Amino acid sequence: MVLMVEKKVKSEAEVVGFPLDSNEPESSPNCSNERLQLRSRYRELIATVQKNREDMLNPSNSALTDILVEANELFKDVRQVREAALDAQLLVVATDLAKEKATQMCSGSDFDPNIFAEHLLSFMGLNRLGDRGDEQQDGRVVDGYLSLAAWQRLARRAECCFRTAPSFHFMNGAFHAKPPPPKPRMQQERKDPSKEVIEIKPIQKLEGSHQEATETEVERILGYLQCYYRDEPTSPISYYEFVIDPNSFSRTIENIFHTSFLIRDGFARIYPDDSNLPCIEPTEVRAMEDGDLSNRKQCIISLSPKTWKELIDAFEIKNAMIQPPNE
C-alpha cells in the first residue's frame, strides 16, 4: 500500500517540482538534518494515530484534528518524494479513523429514554445523595425526591413548547341557539289557464324601413359616382379612393357594402387600369342588359383596419369622395 502511494506521489512530484532522484537513504550526506526531522515527525504522527486509535474514536476527543493541523504545517516543508509518501500514508490512516468515528457518531444518534431521564432529573435539581425522606414545604408533605419548586421549574421550561390560544368565555353565559320555527306555507290559488287573456301585439315591420334606407344610400352614392365621372370622363376613378373614408373605418365598410349594390344591379362596373388596379365608372342599365352576362364576375372583398391604413398611405387619401349622409 505504501509502495503504491509512493509511486503515485513520485509521479505527481514531477509536476509540482520535487526532485526525481530523492530516494537516497537517510544516511546519505545529501540528506540534511531538517529532512530527517521532518520524516521522523511524520512517523511519530502515524504511530500516534495507530497507538491511540481507540481513544480517538471517542466523540469528545479532538486529538485527530490536532494531528491533521500539524500535518498541514509539516506539508509546507515537504520537498522530496519520500516525505510526500509519508504524508500520504498519514492521510490514509487518518481518513480510515475519521470514517470509523463518523460511523459511530451516526449510529449513536437514537433517542435513549434513560439518558433523557437523567438529564431531566439534573435539570429539575435532583440530588441523589440527599435524603430520600419526605420534604416539608408550605406546610405540606412532598413525596419522592423532587420538591414542588422543581416541578414548577420544569413547568416554566415546558410552557413555551405548548403555547395555545386562550379559551373563549361567553360574556352572557352559555348560549345555545335554536333554529327558527318554520314559516307556514301560504297556499296560492291556482289560476285557470283558460281564463287568462293573452294580448296580441302587432308585429313591427322594420324590414321595409331598413330597405328604404339602403336604397336611399345606394342612390346617393350613385349620384356621387356619376358626378365625378361627368366632371372628368377620361380620367379613371380609383375604386379604393372612391370607397375609402380616411377618417372612419366603419364608413369605409358601409361604402363598400352600398357600392356592391351598384355593381350587382348594373349601375356601375369595376375594371382594371393599366397598373392592374381596380377602377369604377357608372354604366347604362340597358348596355349591361344587352351585353354578355357571362363576362360578369363576383368576388368578396375583405378589409381589415391594418389594410385600410395601408391603402390610405399607399393612395395618399386625404379626403373622402363619398361624404357622410349628415354632411
UniProtKB/TrEMBL annotation:
InterPro entries: Nse4/EID, Nse4_C, Nse4_Nse3-bd. It holds the Pfam family Nse4-Nse3_bdg. Residues 236-322 form the Non-structural maintenance of chromosome element 4 C-terminal domain. It comes from the Eukaryota. GO terms for biological process: DNA recombination; DNA repair. It is found in: Chromosome, Telomere; Nucleus. GO terms for cellular component: chromosome, telomeric region; nucleus; Smc5-Smc6 complex. Keywords: Chromosome, DNA damage, DNA recombination, DNA repair, Nucleus, Telomere. Residues 87-137 form the Nse4/EID protein Nse3/MAGE-binding domain. Component of the SMC5-SMC6 complex, that promotes sister chromatid alignment after DNA damage and facilitates double-stranded DNA breaks (DSBs) repair via homologous recombination between sister chromatids. Belongs to the NSE4 family. Component of the SMC5-SMC6 complex. This is Non-structural maintenance of chromosomes element 4.
